[in-house]
Amino acid sequence: MNKTLMELAERAGGTCRGDGSIRLTGAAGLAEAGPGDISFLANKKYANQLASSRAGAVIVSPDVETGARPALVHAQPSVAWAKVLELLDVERTRRPAGIHPTAVIAPTAKLGRNVTVGAHTVVEDGAVIGDNCILYPQVYVGFDVTMGSDCLVYPRVTIRERTTIGSRCIFQPGVVIGGDGFGFTLAQGRHYKIPQVGTVVIEDDVEIQANSTIDRGAVGVTRIGRGTKIDNLVQVAHGVEFGSDGLVAALTGIAGSTKIGHHVTLAAQVGVVGHIEIGDHVVAAARSGISHSLKPNQVVWGTPAQPIQDEIKLLAALRRVPKLLAEIKQLRKNPS
Amino acid sequence: MNKTLMELAERAGGTCRGDGSIRLTGAAGLAEAGPGDISFLANKKYANQLASSRAGAVIVSPDVETGARPALVHAQPSVAWAKVLELLDVERTRRPAGIHPTAVIAPTAKLGRNVTVGAHTVVEDGAVIGDNCILYPQVYVGFDVTMGSDCLVYPRVTIRERTTIGSRCIFQPGVVIGGDGFGFTLAQGRHYKIPQVGTVVIEDDVEIQANSTIDRGAVGVTRIGRGTKIDNLVQVAHGVEFGSDGLVAALTGIAGSTKIGHHVTLAAQVGVVGHIEIGDHVVAAARSGISHSLKPNQVVWGTPAQPIQDEIKLLAALRRVPKLLAEIKQLRKNPS
Amino acid sequence: MNKTLMELAERAGGTCRGDGSIRLTGAAGLAEAGPGDISFLANKKYANQLASSRAGAVIVSPDVETGARPALVHAQPSVAWAKVLELLDVERTRRPAGIHPTAVIAPTAKLGRNVTVGAHTVVEDGAVIGDNCILYPQVYVGFDVTMGSDCLVYPRVTIRERTTIGSRCIFQPGVVIGGDGFGFTLAQGRHYKIPQVGTVVIEDDVEIQANSTIDRGAVGVTRIGRGTKIDNLVQVAHGVEFGSDGLVAALTGIAGSTKIGHHVTLAAQVGVVGHIEIGDHVVAAARSGISHSLKPNQVVWGTPAQPIQDEIKLLAALRRVPKLLAEIKQLRKNPS
Questions:
Q1: Which residue from B205, B273, C35, C223 lies 20 to 30 Å from A96 (Cα-Cα)?
Q2: Considering the domain boundaries, does residue C329 fall inside one?
Q3: Are C12 and C77 in the same domain?
Q4: Chain B: partners with 3+ C-beta pairs within 8 Å
Q5: Residues of A with CB below 8 A from C176's CB?
Q6: Residue ranges of the alpha helices (H) in chain C?
């Protein structure tokens, strides 16, 4: 990257404050940035870090003072920051290209234009890969999988048979899509397997991160809605349906057949039981255990999860119990 | 699938109610099924969903009314359902077959009859694979692993050296069997590795699902008993011994050397400390933290886990604490 | 292994008690050991297991009575045990060797002396692998990764581009290093990806176990300090910095940008929020939820985590609440 602040402001759709001709060659956090770097202030409460930063320029919202330091001003600084980092990403991130001779592409698989298939990647019969997809080395694409265009599939992602994937999806290394759901029934004291003959639908613009697992439907569909982003080591069971624009942080598990609305956020290590419904715009704080359906537009916490204000009150009250018990004991000894 | 209801009833070991000559070509949930589909009623409490279903036929237990709709009647509807889905599974699920030319099979490895070894799969020296096993592409079978017959090993499963596997086991993608246990000892302020020279024994009819990990014994054996089923992202530490017919749901972790009886169920996100014993037929509800040995035949919940009735009472009582504290405060202000 | 007790004592830096000429060919736990095996007593509280053991010899600390049984006496029995098991490890563990013809090593990748690259392993352009490293089959080493000497990389480990790895590191199967961090920002109601252009630095003597994930920094570095050991299925988010000699047990998750001191222990299923600091020598008991910075040298437990004595008191007090409520109810009925 070697851009003037003015060029970056134009790219990001923001405006320039101070010397727009300053050249920037990198980006870094406020504490790490040097004179050639652009940095950004994510949150006004950290504004005091601005003064000590050596950053050549800084991305801020319009209401933040920047003194003599050149600034890229944007109503949403983190969006501007993302657009600057895209330049660095293109510059820094080398990717495989072309069809590697060791890739195994079955005769009836169909590849769009400009598709990359990395070394030792396997694409089974009946699979269809859209234009501009990049399959890194060692990926497995099962029978009759269909994938839209412009997907980025990192090494060791496994997509089992008949999965449907939209466009512009990103799968980080080790993701498993379409593994069998956990379906068994007792027969004569043993667990008899219920074949998992359903599928998975991943809509457009979904990202699933490292080593997360999305099970196929038992007989129907497991669906990840458009634009939903799933962090590392997340478990999505058979028949779960996610609306659009969800966020699911690491080590969360969602049990079978649960329906989740749009713009739902599940923070890290959350558990959601099966066969319930989570309304739109629900936010569950970290480590919540959700055991019943939730109406839309609320923030919940705790196990079982309840409105977060109630949980905060409950936790505060519980912490007073040891003192209360001591007082009661004292009172019994010396009744007034 | 294109079977009459009568044919399906015979296959499932059930009986026919109504028109046994109706032809069925698919299977689906009650809400999704059409006239060509067979569906099933898992639980009598959902019987009101029957009326509105468009399913051509339905699998029910003998005591469920089905009116004019043809039905497959079976004492265990979910077993009958599984047997019908097996037909769909055979029809829908394409699998690799034969020895792929890119597979790397060491000279001293031994393959039984009718074994499939997929593209880019590696089988190391001394490994023995039983008849009819299907190793999907990109599987790793380490030195001196032995595997019984009729196993199904999905892509990217890794089985490290000297593991012993029974027959009819299923490993979903990304499973790791035989990784080193977490064994270190402090020596001069640093963590010194204790070599993990033990093994893993997986008995017959075990299924382990996506990205779960079973560590090898430190010096002895980690054992998964016959017929035990393990969900996604489960951690089983070194020296754990599972009895037969266990069920372990997602994101559960079991620490080292714990002995678990037969027919034990651990629901999702459970944690079990090391060096304890869990009796036969114990059920631990979701998110339990089991910190001490448990006698057989009980259902537990909570952290630390206790009999579930006690935990339910405890949770109910705790939720009344904020009100209690408010009352006490009031009482102090205005002693009667 | 076929060594006299005297030879083992010399190797381990301990002394012999009783007949040092006894030959030992294996090692096992006290309950499993036979006359040809050496065993060890990890903890004096299990000393009563010594009498019934059939072990030919036993490793103990100087203050443990061993009667007529030959013993290897060492101030740190578990260190002596590790040194004995190293002999068994060399004997039992077969490893791949050499450059396999199916490995794909890019033209500008550089390999040190005596490097093993297993079947179907991919080493991308610009990668540098130090002397004596063993890359098992099916490993992925991304562009411009650098790795020191004497590393052991098991099958299906994925190391994404520009990661820096020290010497003597061990990565168990399925580990993912350098996946994108979970960074998005809302733009017009959708989650807009913040490119993750940072890197990961893994220092010397780190071990990361099966299917754990270490995300790359958003713009800076994610760092795992020298000698830190990470168990299976652990999530380390972007920008986390670990000091030296940490221990992290299974299913733990650490959120973004948190700084962790040296000699910190996080037991299993712990959660740590982002942007906090954990002091040196902190120990968090299993399933703790750490929601705020922690000063050095303390043991914490619970959610939110607090000093463990306080948490134990709290749990004990809470378990008395149901009885307290019953008493209060009684009191209201019959005020004395």
A1: C223
A2: no
A3: yes
A4: A, C
A5: 156, 172-174, 210-211, 232
A6: 5-12, 48-52, 77-92, 308-319, 321-333
